Structures are given as structure tokens and as C-alpha cells.
Task: structure prediction
Amino acid sequence: MPKNESEITIEIGNLPGISARSDALKSYTGEDGEVATPVPGGKLHRCIAVSFCLLCILQAALNISLRLALSFQQNSLTEEREELKRQLNDYAFQQNSLTEEREELKRQLNDYASQQNSLTRERDELKRKLNDFANYAQQGWVYFSDSFYYISSIKKTWQGSRDDCLHRGADLIIINSKEEQVFTRQFEKIMWIGLTDRETEARWEWVDRTLLTTSFWYPGEPNNYIGRNEDCVETWYYNDDNSWNDVVCENQNFWICEKKMAL
Ligand code: BGC
Ligand code: CA
Result:
């Protein structure tokens, strides 16, 4: 009867020079011939496989970590960008607001400068007026209802009187209200006034070339008394409300000048 394989192997193992191989085979096969323990090369392979698996896991873990880190970084950058955008918008809004404010302040500054110019002009004008008032008052002029009046202390012809007024920057008085008429009577003087018909007989004209409208002739005047050429007017009847009289222009009289000067 032929022996089974395991029996044959044992017999071969007994042969000189083949014992080592036989030992090795023993460790590989059981009594029934099946594989029992791995050879040293298989261990290495398993080791390599396990290492490879570990490396793969490590690689996967690394990939996931990197992805997570990148994703986190990207989120962080996106948030930062959004925040910067918001800040930029805020700055742009603030800048617009400041620009508008600056324009408004410029406008206000211009207004103030314009007001200041206007006030400076007004102040200078008032200074000039005050100076004029002081000068006229100092020279004995009397102020009444927006005019200064000068009453002479010497006598002259009508034209001589007028020339004196013109020399003083004024002219003979023009009476154009009841109040002004009353004003002239308080001096109780026969004075020339700025009324004449020298150019055209009976056409009474004031020194500013306006025609006579409101008059204060004494009853019976003007009369060119006894055929005289009475072309100039005086306050002959100063005791009466209506004090005017026409008289020869070459007569010598006091006179009253008027200088309009509204405040
Ligand atoms: C008359 C005036 C006249 C004057 C002349 C007076 O008596 O009433 O009309 O002008 O004399 O001096
Ligand atoms: Ca007369």
C-alpha cells in the first residue's frame, strides 16, 4: 500500500542533507497536510499591507484636515472681506456726509462773508452820516424832519443867498409841508426861501425845478406890488400861518438853507 503524502514527507526528512528543508516544510504543513504557520515573507507582506493601510488612513485624515483647514480659512477670509466691504461702505457714506457738510459750511461762510461786507458798508455809511451830522450841528445847523437847516446871520440878495447855500453843499429851503412851514416861522425872521418866478412870470418854481403845488402865500400875495418885478419869495409875514410874500430879488434879506439828510 503506498503511504500518504505526510508519511512520505517524514521519510524524506530522515534523509541526510534534507533535514533542514524538512523542518521548514513541517512548520508549513500539519499532520493532515494543511498550512499551519506563515512563512517569514508573508509577515513582511502583511506588515507592508498594514502600513500601507495606515498610510492611506493617515493620508485620508491629512486630506480631510487640510480640506477642513482650507474651508475654515476660506470662510474666515470671506467674512473678513464682507467686513471690509461694510467698512468701506461706511467710510464712503461718511465721506459723502462730510462732503455735504463741507459744502453747507462753505455756503454758510459765503453768506457770513456777504453779510459782513454788507454790515461793513452800512457801518461806514453810518459813520459818514454821523460825521456829517456832527459837522452840520457844530456849524449851527438845525435838524428837523430828515433835513438840516442853516439860518444866516447876515443879509444878501436872493441869488447871493442861494450861492451861499450851494457853497455849503445845500440850497435855499423848499417848503413842501405844513410842518415845514410852521418850522420856518419859529425863527421870526424875514428870510429868503427857494421859490422864484424869474424865468417865467407867475410860474412859481422851486430851486430843484419842481413847480409850486402847496403854497403858504399871505392873503393878497403874490402881487408884484405897485408894478414892481417881485420874482423872489420871502417870509415877510412870519407871524402868520401863511407868511409868504413876493418881493424884488435884489432886496437884502436873511436866508434859510436846507440840506436833505435822512437817517
Ligand atoms: C406888500 C408886499 C410887498 C412889499 C414890498 C408890502 O407892504 O404887502 O406885497 O411885496 O410891501 O416891500
Ligand atoms: Ca409882494
